[in-house]
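User: Can you predict the 3D structure for this chain?
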Amino acid sequence: MKLPVPSRINEILENKDYQRILENILSLFSLQGLNYILPLVTFPYLTRVLGPEKYGLVAFALAFIGYFQILTDYGFNMSATREISIHREDEERVSRIYSSVLATKALLMVLSFLLMTVIVFSLDKFQSDWLLYYFTFGLVLGNLLLPTWFFQGMEKMRYISILNIGISLIYTAAIFIFVRQPADYTYVPLISALGTIIIGVYSLRLVKRQFGVGFTRPSREDIRYQLEEGWHVFISTVAISLYTISGTFILGFFASNTIVGYFSVAYRIISIANGLLSPISQSIYPYISSLAVKSREEAIYFIKKTTTIMGALSLLVSFLIFIFAGLILYILAGTQYNQSVQLIQIMAFLPFIIALSNMFGVQTMLTFNYKRAFSRIILVGSVINIILTLIMAPFYTAVGISVAMVVTEIYITLAMYLYLRGKGINLLELKSV
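Assistant: Here is the predicted structure, written as structure tokens:
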């Protein structure tokens, strides 16, 4: 692959669009920097104070409530971001999108709350810790109030940085104050939810004050439109959850909370690594969506360049995780979680695989309206994962879940790459426009 020549680099540095993207990336990296520094303090603290059993129970609750977060988000983090990005110069259209998305999410949250209540009081596994699940559900309300998709679409990521830093600071301080022993495990999701709700309320005021966008009662047609726009992303997100959230959730039915704790710690470490590169993908998606409307060729070339960068960085991260898995685990979780070392090494190359699938799927297939194919690939991958999980979890517990996740991500990435090749888009071949 050829790197951009010096003249091209100068063009990039002088381009105002690229400067805005760089600003957004740096804003998110500053956010991620603090958001990783703070969890790197609370994560080791919680793993040691709660122990594998209670940490596993909290992780199970988060996985369970994660389904309702997905239902409430409904793919708006992608579809609404794209809509806002395309129409951000039209204040009236932006207000309509903003109001209809918030209203739709609120309706979906009410439905989620009712479903959760029925499940919690119908199954013995949930009844004994019903308060934990209700506290954890507060995260659904917090995510509803925090319009990350709006700021992404407006390409004003510094607001997200500031708001999320506020959430992290509240969470970190409260964890050390209120969580002192394993019996305090219910406070962990409650603290996280309250912090998100407080910042979410403030963010809605910020949208009104900084952008002049307020909530107005949307029409049924606007709500129906948002549901239709977000449908394919929603289906793919649900499918993705079947091999991310469901790994922890299904494991909770076949193994003890302690085993769930071992797996959750390993997967948490992998997730932290994945998040290191997420500012890049989050920042470029609105720009790619806008650029594709103007020039398909320029959008594809930009995606190719970013794929090269993301691939190299994520591969380096994966190698480091595999080599230093034991040391990383010892620093972050302590000796109670020694059984997690093998799980980390099995999943070590997920950051590399997921970085590529993000470029192939979200950044390219969704941008160029290959939504049906994107959803189909994710759904097939989810079926593969569920089959593997149900076969392997009863016999190999956490190891089986880890292997199933890696196999699924490899399939999805290869399927997306081959589909794009069939459409004449080879993201691993860099050519100038």
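The mean pLDDT is 86. The chain has 18 helices and no strands.
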